[in-house]
Amino acid sequence: MSGSSKPPRFLEWAREIQALAQTGYHYAQDEYQRDRCRRLMKIAAEMISENAGIDFDVLERAFSAQIGYATPKIDVRAAAFRDRKLLLVRERLDGAWTMPGGWADVGICRQKQPSGEAWEEAGFHVQARKVVGVYDANRVSPLEFFTPLR
To answer: What span, in angstroms and rounded, lies between the C-alpha atoms of 2 and 17?
Structure first.
């Protein structure tokens, strides 16, 4: 997968099936509709498990944990410098050092997202000046269904 310009077609299909099933489940009006949506989520998990070697049970639990209308998840990080030093914080998930950040909040303009993350996580007021980079998890290995936090 490394170096390719597009994710494999099965992954695109599985992501679309999972998103449609998640959204369908959210709007389902009876148990029959919810059952069909749960089955579609399992099919998406089976497709990925069989083709990418990711454990089916892990995928099924991850898919079931996603609720509501499916939307892209965008991670925002603040690269804040002072005196040639980079601001880092401990990641809650694994305790590793990272730039302040997290999932972008709905309704907050993109210029304020990194500033808010730096304030929330480190107590520093910073001002965003520009976008430095965009990371696309579809273009590297190992293959993952959800875009990882990096």
So the answer is: 24
